[in-house]
């Protein structure tokens, strides 16, 4: 099961890279960031698909999307200077809390 979660972590990283590159592509007007966005998303979807053999789709997607949101928000803040207001910070914390809750207490997460 550890290998499956490693695949999921790499999928999340690839999605985060893809989304960051999407921002840097300036609406697909810059070639290299555009290419990186497409490659990142392709890898992310492929690896997410591999994890679905072992993890229920709702749980895998919750981790993938939730952690992706948190990481992209942090990158947006650090790299692109995008500010987060209090509701955005609280909401992001709630997403993290939900992921922790699923991982620690849900029997579904250990399919």
Notes on the structure:
The protein has 111 residues and is mainly α. 77% of the residues lie in helices and 0% in strands. It has four helices and no strands. It has helices spanning 2-24, 31-51, 57-78, 86-105. The termini are close together. The mean pLDDT is 94.
Q: Any key phrases for this structure?
A:
111 residues, mainly alpha, 4 helices
Low-confidence stretches: none
Number of strands: 0
How would the global form be characterised? flat
Chain-averaged pLDDT: 94
What is the gyration radius calculated from CA atoms?
A: 15 Å
Structural class: mainly alpha
Note the total helix count.
Answer: 4
Largest sheet: none
Residues in helices, as a percent range: over 70%
Q: Report the end-to-end length measured between terminal Cα atoms.
A: 9 Å
Order of helices and strands: HHHH
Roughly what fraction of the amino acids lie in strands?
Answer: under 5%
Task: Give a short summary of the structure.
Helices cover 77% and strands 0% of the residues. It has 111 residues and is mainly alpha-helical.
Annotate the secondary structure layout:
Elements: H1 2-24, H2 31-51, H3 57-78, H4 86-105
Helix pairs in contact: 1-2, 1-3, 3-4
């Amino acid at each position: 099961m550890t290998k499956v979660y490693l695949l999921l972590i790499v999928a999340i990283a690839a999605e985060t890279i893809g989304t960051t590159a999407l921002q840097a592509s300036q609406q697909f007007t810059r070639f290299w960031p555009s290419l990186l966005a497409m490659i990142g998303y392709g890898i992310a979807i492929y690896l997410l698909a591999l994890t679905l053999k072992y993890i229920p789709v709702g749980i895998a997607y919750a981790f993938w999307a939730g952690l992706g949101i948190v990481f992209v928000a942090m990158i947006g803040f650090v790299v692109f200077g995008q500010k987060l207001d209090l509701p955005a910070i609280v909401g992001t914390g709630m997403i993290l809390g939900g992921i922790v809750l699923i991982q620690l207490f849900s029997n579904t997460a250990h399919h």
